[in-house]
Design a protein that fits this description.
By secondary structure, the protein is an alpha/beta fold. Helices cover about 40% and strands about 20% of the residues. Helix 1 crosses helix 7 and helix 7 packs across helix 8. The structure holds adenosine monophosphate.
Length: about 290
């Protein structure tokens, strides 16, 4: 039976009690409007821990566009039902005031420096986004305390930033889970609910472009320009592409790499109509 807690202080207490019972805790932070991607993280947490909790909080600090925040899908009752059905033990949320009690308004919250992994890509195209993620995730980690926290590889750069944050805090252990896709290859995202049928069809080109870079990689190509070109060639004009790029995940750098690359992940951010989507694919299966 799912325990629903409306404020972080109650969640802290619940987690403390679980630890006193010597139970390991899996924690899945989310912004709600849950889909199979989120649920895969919860299932993984259930498998690896004695008890599992999730958070649902649409974090205003990580939206760099006001419309994106106000249009973000919200489905709290359905979320509770889905979490209950798969066997999550506790879910918590809170108001902006609960999350950032020191600030009179959201604009007054002091943002954390998200560190060296936040430069380039999302850091460049969504100014303030990773700062906002880091600021809320640090609070969530402090609320839940030591545990295992689960993040999706779909938000690849976010996983790097969050790992760095956890390393500096000394907890929690970060676990990452692979991207869940629909039958056409489109990475599941809460924002997909905002797409029309034709926009959904257009959006599938994002994963097609990633897989074309993967095919080129598998054929032996290590040239960054060619890998980038393979992606661009598969992104039709109505998609407004922020980036279609490669990075070395072992040796992350802010700038587009030039020449050849020995380990690679391909990453794309593109706007379909009003909706901005991101996706990525590890090209190097040895990693
Ligand atoms: P969000 O609610 O978008 O903040 O996402 C919460 C968590 O779910 C993050 O760790 C995301 O990376 C993860 N997530 C979102 N979409 C997917 C997906 N399609 N597959 C796997 N994980 C996902």
């Amino acid at each position: 039976m799912l325990t629903v807690l409306q404020d972080p202080a109650s969640a802290t207490q619940w987690c403390r009690e679980q630890r006193e019972l010597n139970k390991t805790i899996g924690f899945v932070p989310t912004m709600g409007a849950l889909h199979e991607g989120h649920l895969s993280l919860v299932r993984c947490a259930i498998d690896e821990n004695d008890v599992t909790c999730a958070s649902i909080f649409v974090n205003p600090l990580q939206f760099n566009e006001a419309d994106d925040y106000s249009n973000y899908p919200r489905a709290i009752d359905l979320d509770y039902r889905l979490l209950d059905e798969i066997g999550c033990d506790m879910v918590f949320g809170g108001t902006n005031r609960d999350m950032f009690p020191e600030a009179e308004s959201i604009e007054e919250v002091t943002l954390l420096d998200p560190g060296r992994f936040a430069t380039g890509l999302e850091g460049e195209f969504r100014p303030g986004h990773l700062e906002g993620v880091c600021t809320v995730v640090e609070r969530l980690f402090k609320f839940t305390g030591d545990c295992r926290a689960y993040f999706g590889l779909k938000d690849y750069q976010q996983t790097l930033v969050v790992r760095d944050l956890a390393k500096n805090l000394g907890y929690p252990e970060i676990r990452t889970c692979k991207t869940v896709r629909d039958e056409h290859g489109l990475a599941l995202s809460s924002r997909n609910a905002l797409l029309s049928k034709s926009e959904l069809a257009l959006a599938t080109n994002i994963s097609k472009a990633l897989y074309s870079a993967k095919a080129l990689w598998d054929s032996g190509c290590r040239e960054c320009d060619q890998l980038r070109m393979a992606m661009r060639d598969n992104l039709p004009v109505p998609l407004q592409v922020d980036y279609a790029d490669v990075r070395n995940p072992v040796n992350w750098q802010a700038n587009s790499p030039v020449g050849t690359i020995s380990h690679a992940i391909a990453l794309i951010a593109a706007r379909v109509g009003e909706v901005r989507l991101i996706d990525n694919l590890q090209l190097d299966s040895r990693l």
